[in-house]
């Protein structure tokens, strides 16, 4: 069953995947309530997720995608090297050589940046999850549909 809004403002239900089918029926009040609540929930998630993505983008904006893709390998090699200096670290070796800096210094920088990234991104991920918790609490609350819709509409990334 799918719900959709037509140009006349009515909310309809259909068994078809196409909103143009002839068997569309005007949705009941209960169905409309469910549709409105789900629509507002989806919009709230979209607002929160866009805010999260925008905030995370601020961290990684200055790095090209392929370098970002190498971060987990850099961190794994760096942490392994700290435990055992004889560990093979081909990526770090290449980076240190290209940058003409001592491997030990590069390992320290990688771990420092990885820890900073984990802390900052963890705060943002936790914040996003907190908004998700708020949405779920509102949905599960024993208040009117109108109150739920207003409360959900008020949720924005800050």
What would you note in describing this structure?
The structure is a single chain. The two termini are 36 Å apart. Helix 1 (29-60) packs antiparallel against helix 4 and helix 1 (29-60) runs parallel beside helix 5 (145-153). The protein contains five helices and three strands. With 158 residues, it is mainly alpha-helical. The chain has helices at 29-60, 65-83, 90-99, 103-140, 145-153; strands at 2-5, 11-14, 25-26. The longest helix has 38 residues, at 103-140. The chain has a three-stranded antiparallel beta sheet with strand order 1-2-3, with helices on one face. The mean pLDDT is 89.
Topology of this structure?
Blueprint: E1 2-5, E2 11-14, E3 25-26, H1 29-60, H2 65-83, H3 90-99, H4 103-140, H5 145-153
Antiparallel strand pairs: 1-2, 2-3
Helix pairs in contact: 1-4, 1-5, 2-4
Low-confidence stretches: none
Give the % helix: 55-70%
Residue fraction in strands: 5-15%
Can you summarize the main beta sheet?
Answer: 3 strands, antiparallel
SSE succession: EEEHHHHH
What's the average pLDDT?
A: 89
- Number of DSSP helical runs: 5
Structural class: mainly alpha
- Total number of strands: 3
Widest sheet: strand ordering:
1-2-3
How many angstroms separate the termini?
A: 36 Å
């Amino acid at each position: 069953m799918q719900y959709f809004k037509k140009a006349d403002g009515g909310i309809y239900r259909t068994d078809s995947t196409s909103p143009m089918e002839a068997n569309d029926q005007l949705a009941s009040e209960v169905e409309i309530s469910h549709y409105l609540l789900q629509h507002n929930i989806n919009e709230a998630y979209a607002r929160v997720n866009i805010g999260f993505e925008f905030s995370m983008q601020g961290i990684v904006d200055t790095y090209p995608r392929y370098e970002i893709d190498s971060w987990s390998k850099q961190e794994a090699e760096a942490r392994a090297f700290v435990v055992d200096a004889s560990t093979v670290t081909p990526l770090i070796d290449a980076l240190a050589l290209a940058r003409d800096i001592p491997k030990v210094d590069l390992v320290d920088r990688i771990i420092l940046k990885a820890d900073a990234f984990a802390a900052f991104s963890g705060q943002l991920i936790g914040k996003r999850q907190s908004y998700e918790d708020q949405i779920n609490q509102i949905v599960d609350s024993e208040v009117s549909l109108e109150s739920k819709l207003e409360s959900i509409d008020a949720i924005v990334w800050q």
